[in-house]
Amino acid sequence: MVLPQFVASALTAHLNTRYSATTWHTSPLSGNPSAKNGSINWRRCPEAFVGELKLAAWAMINGELRPTFVRERQRLRSRVSAGTIVSTVAQWMNLANWLHDRGIRCLADCDQAVLHDYGQHLSTQHTVRTSAQAVLAALVRLWAYDRLTASPAGIGRPPWDEFGIDDYLPPASSGGGENQTEPVAEHVMGPLLVWAMRMVDDLSEDILRGWAEGQRLMAAGRANSATPEGKAALLAYLTPLIEGRAPLPTTLHRGRPHFAREYVQGLTGAAKSQMNTLLVREGLVAAAAERPGGCPLDVPVTGTIAGSPWRDTLDLGETDHLMIHLGTACFIVIAYLTGMRPGEVLGLRSGCCPDPEPGDAGRTGRHVIHGKTFKTATDEHGNHNSAGADRDVPWTAITPVVNAIRVLERMVPPGGLLFDKAAHDVAGRRPGTGSLKLDTMRDRVEAFIAWANAEATARDLPAEAIPPDPHGAVGTARFRRSLAWHIARRPGGLVALAIQYGHLRTVFSTVTDGYGSRSRSGIHDLIDVETARAVADTVIGLNEHLAEGGSVSGPAARRAIKAAAKAPRFAGTVITAATAKRLIANEDAMIYDNPQAFVLCHYKRAQALCHRDGVRDTPTLDRCVPGCGNIIRTDEHAVLLRERAGFLDKRVAFAARPIGDRLRANAARLRDLADTHDRTRITLKDTT
């Protein structure tokens, strides 16, 4: 069905199907290792239309639209991705079913008038403009590809292609797209990142060592030959357990305990035949179900949780789950601390993050990650490139990300995918090739959260439990959005969990190098959008505070009042990356909240004290300097300053004298700032 020149990956070439098949697999068209194995099921299509639609679908899969046709329609590409092919054919089938219900049995009878009626029908079915546009574009493709087949069916030209599309679309809305993804709540992201980094940095060595020992025992148990020594060792190991009615070594299989025969064979050197004889004679299968016990592994345990050893011994029965959780922890660390899209993370390969060499491109001393992009990959003709494209500029990796990659490289073959399905499907239960799929990883993130919460409960660490997120499952797509949110809105808060390991914010605010460079598109666009949204919230909040009679103080108080008066201009604004850049460039409009420093910042580049190496478009809020001419304080800040001072006073009683003196001095300084606000504050009336 797919011609050889369009097969994107040898891993999925075997899934290519015949033209006559009732199911067409589109996996051979995609080189994205994390993409789902898509298919077109012709059983969903009315029999009268199958032949005609198959011809058009084959032309779309193995051909391309004429350059002149595409040039006149900027929204269309001459070739599209495998996923778009599946969704496009699905829309063709929807049209066929609609026609069938109205007694139409061939595409030749579907003229422009019929398509007008169908377009009107679609306008009542869709409320989101972008999704309606996609459906109408799919039907334009049907008309175009039908004309390219060896035997055109003769479907009419869609009227929206000839006379305009607006009459067939719902009103424009701001919904949809990556920028509408909710970030993971900060009280969820904090402990989740702690557990993921703990798994990678502190527990991975134990897990990998336990997994290797378990695999060695199982392999040895299957390969042992029958010897008198093996039989003697088997009897010496099991006889005391049998006679003392002690728990027997078991593993869980589909939730039920089973005697761990291969573990025992590997431990004692006994052969399978010797083990089976003893199993039958002593009734060990039934006894193991009644008296299940563990399968401890002879490996050292060095990892700790909250300062205490996390296990006395590792058990064979938990190594599978721990390996899955370790891979998931690596995914969380990489996805959150780089801002990559989930598919880009799953497409990384072993060796993608080499150690920097002196004098090389890694002159900054930082690790960089080389990988592919799939969402925006195009070929030299501007068509979607299903195999992905190498990124021109690599990602910058901080230490926790490098650690996660090094752990994954120990789990997969050299040069293999870091999330290779064969390596990460430790139970070997699911067929398939490539990397783990997005839905699998989504489930594993939720399983990791459940495991971390169970560990926190068992160790009486309620503060380290991961609470439910108010917007539902954490999933995979929200990490990228969350990083932008935390950098823009909590510069000195929970993202400090990463800063202490590798100066994440420094990497993202570098002007000429690093993943957050202003010269690049990608995650920095999301950061700009989040920054603009945060500023909009801050300006609106300040306007409401002043309208209710509140007051402000500080060197920038008067100009902040003027800026807040313009707050209504943000109402109903759809903040895109381009809009965000324009807002950030307007110094008069930008007021930043810095809750950790108890100030607002009406940023003026020329007088900012937070930049030691030149001026920038935005402040560095985790480097706020007292006395800066951009500072504003509100009445709420004064209250928070006094509350913080009271907290420090309480700590004095439990601190050594030198530390207590510093805490006392800091508390006095905070109270002095609050008193200064009370003496110098002004209100909206004072400026008018």
Question: How would you summarize what this structure contains?
Answer:
The chain is of the alpha+beta class and 688 residues long. It has 25 helices and 16 strands. 40% of the residues are buried.
Describe this structure in words.
With 688 residues, the protein is of the alpha+beta class. 49% of the residues lie in helices and 7% in strands. The chain contains 25 helices and 16 strands. It has a 5-stranded antiparallel beta sheet with strand order 13-14-15-12-16, with helices on both faces. It has a 3-stranded mixed beta sheet with strand order 4-3-5, sandwiched between helices. The chain has a two-stranded antiparallel ribbon with strand order 1-2. Strand 3 and strand 4 form a beta hairpin. Helix 3 crosses helix 5, helix 17 crosses helix 20 and helix 20 crosses helix 22. It is flat and about 95 Å long. The termini are far apart.
What attributes does this structure have?
16 strands, alpha+beta, five-stranded antiparallel β-sheet, 7% strand, three-stranded mixed β-sheet, 25 helices
Could you give the topology of this structure?
Elements lengths: L22 E3 L13 E3 L5 H16 L4 H5 L10 H20 L10 H14 L3 H20 L10 H5 L22 H38 L4 H16 L4 E6 L2 E4 L1 H8 L3 H11 L1 H7 L1 E2 L10 E2 L2 E2 L6 H23 L3 H5 L20 E3 L2 E2 L15 E2 L4 E3 L1 H13 L9 H4 L13 H21 L19 H12 L6 H7 L1 H5 L14 H25 L3 E3 L3 H8 L12 H9 L5 E4 L4 E4 L28 E4 H18 L4 H24 L1 E2 H4 L1
Parallel strand pairs: 3-5
Antiparallel strand pairs: 1-2, 3-4, 6-7, 8-11, 9-10, 12-15, 12-16, 13-14, 14-15
